[in-house]
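Task: encode each sequence below as structure tokens.

Item 1
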Amino acid sequence: MAKAVRGRPRKAIARKTPAPVKRQVAKPGVTSDKIRALVYNLSSRELDELIQIAAARKNEEVTTARASFLDEVRAKAASLGMSLADLVGLGNGKATRKKASPAGSAAPAKYRNPETGETWSGRGRPPRWISELEAKGSNRQEVAV
């Protein structure tokens, strides 16, 4: 029942439900106990075959459900004058702008340690090997790439 708002009952919203997909239903006389009994009496080869058949049936169900969902979305979009590209943001007419460099990408190396081959881009705090070279009296330009 709808929740009351300031003493008045809320109006129930009528929603359209999609048309149900017609599918074959298991016979009402077969219960899970009967199915379990049948499965436990199968050999391993028969179980493998049953698994393959069940997997194929499941794939059919998923494919049918996806197709019906896509048809519903296409119909709804067409009724609103939209295409699927508009729905996913591809049909807005605006050109997408790519970032110059994604966050976290490494800058090109400007300095290389001659002993270990370590590199430094020149950004941020200098590594220990640069500080040690400068403390000895060397210049950064001597190890520039």
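Item 2
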Amino acid sequence: MLYILNTLIVPVNFDEDNEITVKMKRINVDEAKFLLAGEFESAVGHQSTAEVISKILGVKIHPERKTIFFKKGDMGIHFFLRERLPEGKILSQEELEKLDYWLVLSQVVE
């Protein structure tokens, strides 16, 4: 499964394995768009963030506040803001669009 997240954290389940290996690399917008052309599941927790990611990637991202765990073979596209926000701060779409971000692809390989 491919997930899209608004965090750089890779949610893995240690109940199933004692050791998990994750590969990560930065990707560009075109690479993300290509991957999102297929089936994916959103784990983006905030409406404004989902709207910004949708605008950047040209794909409708629905906000979904749910718990997920990657299994072997699962991948994630992580929208990662490169600055730490003040505690409890929820940004508007206009504020989010001004921030610097990375897109990172992760995959659980073992």
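Check on item 2: The CA atoms of residues 31 and 63 lie 22 Å apart. Residues 47-57 form the longest helix (11 residues).
End of task.
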